[in-house]
Design goal:
CATH superfamily: CheA-289, Domain 4
Oligomer: single chain
Structural class: mainly beta
Number of strands: 11
CATH class: Mainly Beta
Distance between the termini: 69 Å
Strand order of the largest sheet: 8-1-2-11-10-9
CATH topology: OB fold (Dihydrolipoamide Acetyltransferase, E2P)
Shape: globular
Order of helices and strands: HEEEEEHEEEEEEH
Number of helices: 3
Length: about 160
């Protein structure tokens, strides 16, 4: 009897091995750098990544709206995500990430693309941040390179400081 109890309480035994079904969703994020902070955008929102090209300014637009570009016949707004989040424009950005939002396709200017990071849904932590752009942070996750700040793109663009 003692052997049976011991076998059932082995710490290396997983819930699946004990007959319980455990499901953990893996979420994918496009990791970008903005002012040395690693931020994640749900990969489901990302349409493409492109180099900065001829951005046509739009007169009388909000300052964070850099203008519009034409990508394969589709005109879309280009937004400085750094300015929208209240971060300083410390270096010239070279990439635009095209996102699918509630407002249609919108391009955001980013400092650097890190790559795709996979995070288990169980590893997401609630937003502990306060300050500058905390209202736009959905979750955080501990990753190899530090902390991934997962931003809520739809909230950014529906907010009065966002777009349109």
């Amino acid at each position: 009897m003692a052997d049976i109890l011991k076998a059932e309480s082995t710490p290396t035994q997983t819930a699946v091995q004990r007959g319980k079904k455990v499901q953990t969703n893996i979420l994918e994020f496009l990791a970008i750098y903005l002012e040395n902070e690693l931020m994640g955008i749900p990969l489901t929102k990302v349409v493409e990544i492109t180099k900065i090209r001829d951005i046509v300014p739009v007169p009388f637009s909000k300052s964070h709206i850099r203008g519009v570009i034409n990508i394969r016949g589709e005109i879309m707004a280009i937004v400085s995500l750094k300015e929208t989040l209240g971060l300083s424009e410390t270096r010239e950005s070279q990439r635009i990430v095209i996102l699918e939002t509630r407002f249609g396709k919108i391009g955001i200017i980013v400092d650097e693309i890190y790559g795709v990071i996979k995070v288990r849904e169980d590893d997401l932590e609630p937003n502990p941040m306060v300050g500058r752009y905390s209202e736009y942070v959905k979750n955080i996750a501990q990753v190899d390179n530090g902390i991934l700040i997962i931003i809520d793109i739809d909230k950014i663009f529906e907010d009065k400081n966002g777009f349109p």
